[in-house]
Design goal:
Largest sheet: 10 strands, mixed
CATH topology: TIM Barrel
Number of helices: 11
Number of strands: 14
CATH class: Alpha Beta
Shape: globular
Organism: Flammeovirga agarivorans
Number of domains: 1
Oligomer: single chain
Distance between the termini: 59 Å
Order of helices and strands: HEEEEEHEHEHEEHEHEHHEEHHEH
Main location: Golgi
CATH superfamily: Glycosidases
Structural class: alpha/beta
Subcellular location: Golgi apparatus membrane
Keywords: Golgi apparatus, Hydrolase, Membrane, Signal-anchor, Transmembrane, Transmembrane helix
Mean pLDDT: 94
Strand content: 5-15%
Membrane topology: Single-pass type II membrane protein
Length: about 425
Amino acid sequence: MRLQKIYTIGLVAFFSLLMLLAFKKKKEKINYPSYKGLVMCGYQGWFRTPGDGGARGWVHYGTKSFNPDNVTVDLWPDMSEYKKTYSTDFLNKDGSPATVFSSLDASTVDLHFKWMKEYGIDGVFVQRFYNNSKKGPRRKEATQVLKNAFKAANKHQRAIAVMYDLSGLKKEESCYETLVSDWQRLIDELKFNKGVNKENYLHHNGKPLIAIWGVGFQERPYTAKSSEIERFMDFVKNDPEYGNFSIMLGVPTKFRTLDGDCEPDNYVHEVIRKADIVQPWFVGRFRMQHLENKVYKTQIAKDVAWCQENAVDYVPTIYPGFSWYNLKRMKGEVGKDNSLNAIPRLKGKFFNKQVDLAIEHGAEMLYVAMFDEIDEGTAIFKATNTPPINGTFSDYEGLPSDHYLKLTGQAGERLKKQQ
């Protein structure tokens, strides 16, 4: 009788454990367990307007104001689908005020994620700039954009991940204390390492993925060592409460050879080897002639080989074209590289050629810069071919406003077919 009782208790315990494991597995469903096979975009989310509920006024449209004498964007968004719009001093052809969006509005972010789903784009890394990770109103607004992005990602079942951008870090300044404090608050507020916000959070190598951009760039006031980025990496990898994350590092084009745009310091390689993915920055570095000769394909092939030798995964940066005419004009800087459409899009040929060569020479995942970047003319979202008449702007060369959304989705199809 006693043996039967022990047997019964053991049986109940066994099935209880099975049920607990099944419940845990169901609760921790992960829709994006690996970056491999995916096309992700960078998402700036930094455009602000007066009246959007924030405290910053015009941000990234112009410098403090936004008018024909003060403008920093080269593309004008196609505003036909936005729920909330904001009037400007710019005029459409019919004389009506041209409008723009604010990234702070939840409806704006939701529309962008809706487009991602419609066109088969896997998801985005939401940029979190160093100065926005400090305490104060800027952090509050940046966090609201991120919250809106998580909500939209869950609604539209898109992949999402946090990307810290070290831009703004000063000379010999350590980012460690600021980023650790911000990271702890983010985890506590958004809980994307568990619960509902974990389901669509991008994972890699069995762990949720954090991206850190701006490590090892020669022209930066800080260095890889002075930033103490390695300390922060150790924290997000190993902290018992806020860690257990994989890491992607955004590095210079010449990270492998430690020259050109990269610090000539072997320490950069030491830091990279502690990451899971390396993402070299190619924006502005290559033109169509580099794709048509051996420069680009050689770069990709040698990068892939180096990463394989050093046990790090590789994701190249793909971009549709480049233009920062208005941004540089406001700074009084003129020249060939600062002209309108400095790196032409060629109606998508430049974008598609990069995708084909990257996949052909070993890339297993792609990073597209950027989803919404109209300051530097790299946006792939819907932009208009009829920008305001009282300004100088680029356009999509008469192509439909969704042309680059389609190309990005098609790039994902080609990548998945190759995989």
